[in-house]
Design a protein that fits this description.
Strand order of the largest sheet: 14-15-16-13-12-17-18
Helix content: 25-40%
CATH architecture of the largest domain: 3-Layer(aba) Sandwich
Number of helices: 14
CATH topology of the largest domain: Aldehyde Dehydrogenase, Chain A, domain 1
Number of strands: 21
Largest sheet: 7 strands, mixed
Structural class: alpha/beta
């Protein structure tokens, strides 16, 4: 029997109060990995929340520079553990060491942490508004302990103890209770070890970051609804996310969920006539990257009928059939993908091409490209928008522009939407009405660019209308906007200046923070 790994609660590695155990598997081989991890019972959650509440009270007394110091120290310790982190994540996810883990996701993760540190220290995320004449002042301030549920597909950059939600919550001054994803618990444990070392080095409260690996569904719902929780961040399946959202909504807890997205891509006739071969390569590369397990994977293509569309789909189908079927993150992901493809076929989609029976070991499904008419899509749009998380895409072919627009009218909310058009303007007449429809259905609109990459920049929106996310006004990527999810608006009316938080006093505490003073944005002091 493998040794049971400890949880990290209240500043200590200790044995869990567990109801069972689980083990991760290597997706590339299907082999069970040796470490055993506990399924925590409610007393573990209760202890973590009690400790997080005490840590929250302490954090409110510390200057933001101390929080920034921790985030930077954490980033440095991650870099010092890069080799073992990447090797462990490679075993638990099947992702290649290079370029995916070592050259892309790990640098992105430490960059996010350092951006969050800069934003915490500089302070403009607080959105300070000062009316000096009436002596009314307001800002965003930390909401309380945050529970972060990390997804399976980004063990570093979205990890519960390392990723964007984690960095944003800490930058706001909120302790994090990290619930590891069960696909990569050992990777998350390594991040917690680095975080614990950084907490000790910077002398932050030891319960600023805590880790449990898994709970029952009932305890997960109880956890997000607990009065001690300030907010919740969740990225994962729609089914599980909606249950957590219902539990949090029932008690008025903010919960930021990223659930599902098919990320429609519209290919206009001029673009196909101009550069079809190039677009086939862009689409196939984007769709099959990471075995299609990106939340911005292009899962729905929209065309106008014609020879160019048929040629595009034929060429893309041949590349799908020829490409090896990559490893999926778990047996559950593979099972869900198979069921999703079956749902699409039952709803009227036909297979254009697939890569045939899978003979390699591990968790894999054939690369699958499907096609359906726009009229059938409009009739059965709900089923035909079933998210197939993995190496699959569905092409919808419309008879004319009005029918294409009718397809867009049926779309659910998505993270991204893209329009490919002729570079000389031949598609401009189609572009305007399509963009007007698509803009309402997506958080990020792209032109002539696949949606797979998500740049870590202040201008980025990684969000969108439901069910892509639960709150279309918020983003999970992009500092400082992502931090604001974990703040509450606090107003002070006729409070004497020495009693005000530093950000609201007449003197700008950093000299860099932007504040709205009597209607004008300023980095100066209040006169």
């Amino acid at each position: 029997m493998p040794e049971l790994q400890p949880i990290y609660v209240a500043g200590q590695w200790r044995a869990a109060d567990s109801t069972g155990t689980f083990q991760a598997a290597n997706p590339a081989t299907g082999e069970t990995l040796p470490d055993a991890f506990p399924i925590s019972a409610w007393p573990d959650c209760d202890a973590a929340l009690t400790a997080a509440s005490a840590a929250f009270a302490e954090l409110q007394l510390l200057p933001p520079a101390r929080i920034a110091e921790f985030l930077r120290a954490f980033a440095t310790k991650i870099e010092g553990q890069a080799e073992v982190l990447c090797a462990t994540a490679n075993r638990e996810t099947g992702y290649p060491l290079k370029p995916r883990l070592a050259e892309a996701e790990l640098p992105r993760t430490v960059n996010q942490l350092r951006q969050a540190a800069d934003a915490a220290e500089e302070g403009s995320w607080q959105n300070v508004v000062i009316d000096s004449k009436q002596n009314i002042r307001s800002h965003l301030t930390a909401l309380g302990p945050v529970v972060v549920f990390g997804p399976n597909n980004f063990p570093f950059a979205f990890g519960s103890a390392s990723g964007g939600d984690f960095a944003a919550a800490i930058a706001a001054g909120c302790p994090v209770v990290a619930k590891a994803n069960t696909s990569h618990p050992a990777t998350t444990k390594l991040f917690m070890e680095a975080a614990a070392a950084a907490l000790a080095e910077t002398k932050l409260p030891t319960a600023t970051v805590q880790l449990i690996y898994r709970t029952s569904h009932a305890d997960g719902e109880r956890l997000v609804a607990d009065p001690r929780v300030g907010a919740v961040a969740y990225t994962g399946s729609r089914n599980a996310g909606l249950k957590l959202k219902a539990a949090a909504d029932a008690v008025g807890k903010p919960i930021y969920v990223e659930l599902s997205s098919v990320n429609p891509v519209v290919f206009l006739p001029g673009a196909l006539a101009e550069r079809s071969e190039k677009l086939v390569d862009e689409f196939v590369g984007s769709c099959l990257m990471g075995t299609g397990q990106f939340c911005t994977n292009p899962g729905l293509l929209v065309f106008l009928k014609g020879d160019a569309t048929d040629a595009f789909l034929s060429a893309a189908g041949k590349k799908f059939a020829a490409a090896p079927a990559g490893a999926l993150l778990s047996s559950g992901v593979a099972d869900s993908l198979r069921r999703g493809v079956e749902v699409l076929q039952q709803a009227g989609a036909t297979v254009v091409a697939d890569s045939g029976a899978v003979t390699q070991p591990g968790f894999r499904c054939p690369n699958t490209l499907l096609r359906v008419s726009a009229s059938q899509f409009v009739k059965n749009s709900h089923a035909l928008q079933t998210e197939c998380f993995g190496n699959e895409s569905l092409a919808v072919v419309a008879d004319d522009l009005p029918q294409l627009l009718a397809v867009l009218d049926q779309l659910e909310g998505n993270l991204t939407g893209c329009i490919y058009s002729d570079t000389t303007g031949k598609d401009d007449a189609h572009y305007a009405p399509i963009a007007a429809k698509l803009r309402l259905r997506v958080g990020r609109l792209l032109n002539d660019k696949m949606p797979t990459g998500v740049a870590v920049t202040a201008a980025m929106n990684h969000g969108g209308p439901f069910p892509a996310t639960g709150h279309p006004a918020f983003t999970a990527v992009g500092i400082p906007a992502a931090i604001k999810r974990f703040g509450m608006l606090a107003c002070y009316d006729n409070v004497r200046e020495p009693r005000l938080p530093a950000a609201l006093q007449n003197k700008n505490p950093t000299g860099k923070m932007w504040r709205s003073v009597d209607g004008a944005w300023s980095q100066g002091d209040v006169a």
